[in-house]
Amino acid sequence: MVKTTSFTGSMKLLCYMVILQCGISSGLMAQGMQTTPDYKRSDLPTEKRVEDLMSRMTLEEKVGQLSTLLGWEMYEKQGNTVGISATFEKAVQERHIGMLWATLRADPWTQKTLVTGLQPSQAAEATNAMQKYMIENTRLGIPLMLAEECPHGHMAIGTTVFPTSMGQSSTWNPELIEKMASTIAREARLQGGHIGYGPVLDLAREPRWSRVEETYGEDPYLNARMGVAMVRGFQGNDIASGQNVISTLKHFTAYGVPEGGHNGSSVSVGNRELHSSYLPPFKAAVEAGALSVMTAYNSIDGIPCTSNGHLLRDVLVEDWGFDGFVVSDLGSISGLKGSHHVAATSEEAAALAINAGVDSDLGGYGFDQYLLKALKTDLVKESVLDEAVAKVLRLKFDMGLFENPYVDSEKAGREVRSAANIALARQVAREGVVMLKNEGNVLPLDKNIKKIAVIGPNADNTYNQLGDYTAPQASDNIITVLEGIQNKLGENVAIDYVKGCAIRDTSQSDIDAAVRAASAAEVAVLVLGGSSARDFDTEYEETAAAKVSQVEEGKLISDMESGEGFDRMTLDLLGDQLALLQAIQATGTPVVLVLIKGRPLNLNWAAENVPAILDAWYPGQEGGNAIADILFGDYNPSGKLPISVPTSVGQLPVYYNYKNPHRHDYIEGKADPLYSFGHGLSYSTFDYADLKISGDLQSESPVVQVSLSLTNTSEWAGEEVVQLYLRDEVSSTVAPVKQLRAFKKVMLKPNETLTVDFTLDQEDLQVLNPAMQWVVEPGAFTIQIGASSKDIRLEDQFELVP
C-alpha cells in the first residue's frame, strides 16, 4: 500500500507538473500571439490600425504627432559620417514629435552649405538613422513623416533644379509638368522624404508681391491644370510605392493678392470672387487626390486663414470631401496672437487653429505645450485632437512607413540628379521660355557667326538663374547663358563676356566695357532681370521670409529683388540695367534681350526699341542650354505668358479676365497690358480656320463640341498653344469679359494641317448665381479661339436653351 500510494503520489505530481508546464507554455504562446499589436499588423485595415494605436497613446504623444519641427537641426555631420543629433533625441523623448520639415533643406537661412549639408546618399543615411531611433527608442515605435520643399525640385543638395513655377506654367504643357513632378517626388523619396510642399496654387494678380515666381500665374483654369498635374506627378497611383510623396497644396487661400503687394498682409476678396476665382484651383487639386493642404498667412474679410473654420471645415472637408490633413504655414498659428492679434494667449491661438481644422503645426511652436494647456483648460476637446492625430497616422500607415521606414542610400546616390532628370530639366526650361518679340526675324541667330557679345548681370550668374527655394549648387551643376552659348558654338566663335552692371548695386557698373564689347560684335545678347538668390548676409524672419532693410553705406547691395519677403513698389529694372540696355542698343549692333526674373517687370522701353526679347523666368539648372537652343534655332520657342505684363504699376491689378464692364483707357495711356496673358511667339506661323460648334445645347446637361483647323504656314516645325476663351453674354451675376476654358499644345510639321477639338461641359459653362449656387443658365455664349487672350483668330456664338 505504501509503495502504491507513493507511486500514485509521484504520478500525480508528475501529471501536475506536466499540466502546469503546458499551461505555462500555452500562456506564453498566448502572450506571444499578443506581442504584435494590431497597429503593427499590415494585414489589418488602416482604420483598425489607427484605432488600436491611438488607444495606446498618451495625451502628450498625441500632441507630439502634430508637431512638425525644423529638421535640419536633427542630424550631425562629421566628415563623411552622418548621425542623429542631441537636439533630435531631446525632441523625440521630451516632445514625442511625429514629423519634421525641411530636414534636408540647405540654404543661407538654414546655414547649410555644400560642406555642412548632405549629399543624396548621406541624406538617406541621416533619415534612416532618425527612423531607426524612432522605432527602437520610443515606446510605440511610430515612424517619422518627413516633409520637404519641392516646388521646382527637391530643395536639397545634389538634386535636379527645374524652372520655377512661372516657367513651368509658361510651357502650357500639363503632361510635361506631371512628368517633372514625378521626377521631383522620386528624388525626395529616395532620400527619405514623404511629403512634398507644392504646388503653389495662389493666383498672382499683384506682381509687386514677392512670391509671384512660385505661382502658375493669374488664371484659375491654367492654375488648376498645372496643380492637378503636380498632384498626380507627386502622388502617383500608389502612395506606398516608395517612388511618390504626399502633395501639400499652398497657400489656402487668396494669398497672392495682398494689399499693396505686402507679403502676408490682409486680402479684400468678396465671397463670390473667392469661390469663382481663388478656390477652383484648390478644388481641382483636391479632387485629383491631394492629401495635404497648407494654410496661408493672410486674413480674408478679417478672418486669418489659419483659424478660418468655414474654409477648412465647411468648404475643404464638407463640400469637397478632402480626407487628408491640414498643416499651418510656418509660424502662422503663433501669428494668430503675434501678427493678427485675434488671440490673447498662445493656448488660445492653438485652440483657434485646431478647432478650425488645422491638423499639424509647421515649426512645432504653435501647438506643443500650448495645445496641451488648451486641452487641460477645455479650450479644445480631446475628440478634436483625436480627429487631427488620426489623419496624420492614417497617412503614415497608407504610405507603408511602419513596414518600410528606411531607404537605400546607395540607390539615392546613384539615381538622384540622373542624366535623364537633367535632360528633363532642359526640356521644361525650353518649353517655358516665352518669345515676347522678334522684329525682323532677328532670331534665330546664325551659328556661323564670328563674334558675339554676351553681356549683363544674369548672363553668367549661377544663383540668379535658379529662383527662391533652391539649395547650394556645385559649380558644374548649373549651365548659365554664357556657358550655354559656349557649348553651342564651340571654340571657333569669339565670345566676349562683360557683366556690365549688377541687378541693384550701381557701384559695380562698367557700362563702357560693355559698349566696347557690343560695338565689336555681330550681335549682343544682353541678359537682364532680377534675382531671388539668397546670400549668407541676408537676415530672415522666423518664417524664412527675408528681411528687407536699408543698406549700409559702402556695403555691396545684394542682387535679390524677388523671392519671399522682397516686395516691390515699382516694377522697373533696378540699378543701372536700363542704362546698360540703352547704351548697348545705341551701338547699332543687333540686340537680343534675355530676361531672367521672378515677376513681370517694366519692359516699355525694351518693347519699343529692342528687336528681340526672350522671357525665361528662372529657368533652372539647364537654363543656359535651353536659352542657347532657342537663340540658335535648335528649339522653336513655344512658351506662352501665364501672367499679364503691365505697362505701369498704375494699372494694377491688370489681368485679362476681369469682370464686366469693359475697361476704358487712362489719360496717360491704354488700359491694356504691354503683353497679354497667353502671348508668346514662335519661329513658325499658324493659320486658324473652320470654327465649328455643335453638341447638346440643353442647359440642364450641356455638352458643347468645338473644332477648328490649324495649319503651320511656315517652313519651321513648331508647337502652338491653341487657347479657347468663353464669354457668357448675359448672366445673373457679373461675369468676366472672357475666361480661359480649354487649351491644347499642338505640334505641326511645316505646312501641316490638323483638326483641334475641344469639349465644354456643365462645369465650363456654369455661373455662381445670386443664391451662391453653381448653375448653368440658358442664353448666348461666345467662343473665342486664338493664340493669346488678345490675339483672337476665330469667334462664334451658340445658345443654350432651357
Structure description:
- The protein is of the alpha/beta class.
- The chain has three domains: 60-415, Glycoside hydrolase, family 3, N-terminal domain (TIM Barrel); 433-643, 3-Layer(aba) Sandwich (Rossmann fold), CATH 3.40.50.1700; 686-800, Immunoglobulins (Immunoglobulin-like).
- 32% of the residues lie in helices and 19% in strands.
- It contains 23 helices and 27 strands.
- The protein has an eight-stranded parallel β-sheet with strand order 11-8-7-6-5-4-1-12.
- Strand 16, helix 20 and strand 17 (591-596) form a beta-alpha-beta unit.
- The longest helix has 33 residues, at 2-34.
- The model is unreliable at 1-32 (pLDDT under 50).
- One of its GO terms (biological process) is glucan catabolic process.
List key phrases describing it:
Immunoglobulin-like, Rossmann fold, TIM Barrel, alpha/beta, 19% strand, 8-stranded parallel β-sheet, 32% helix, single chain
List the helices and strands and how they pair.
Blueprint: H1 2-34, H2 46-56, H3 59-65, E1 67-70, E2 75-78, E3 81-84, H4 86-95, E4 99-101, H5 120-137, E5 145-149, H6 165-170, H7 174-190, E6 195-200, H8 220-235, E7 246-252, H9 271-278, H10 280-287, E8 292-295, E9 299-300, E10 303-304, H11 309-319, E11 325-327, H12 335-338, H13 346-356, E12 361-363, H14 368-376, H15 382-398, H16 409-415, H17 419-432, E13 434-438, E14 451-455, H18 481-489, E15 494-498, H19 511-519, E16 523-529, H20 577-586, E17 591-596, H21 604-609, E18 612-615, H22 623-631, E19 686-696, E20 703-712, E21 718-728, E22 739-748, E23 753-760, H23 762-765, E24 767-768, E25 774-775, E26 779-786, E27 792-800
Parallel strand pairs: 1-4, 1-12, 4-5, 5-6, 6-7, 7-8, 8-11, 14-15, 14-16, 16-17, 17-18
Antiparallel strand pairs: 2-3, 9-10, 13-18, 19-20, 20-23, 21-22, 21-26, 24-25, 26-27
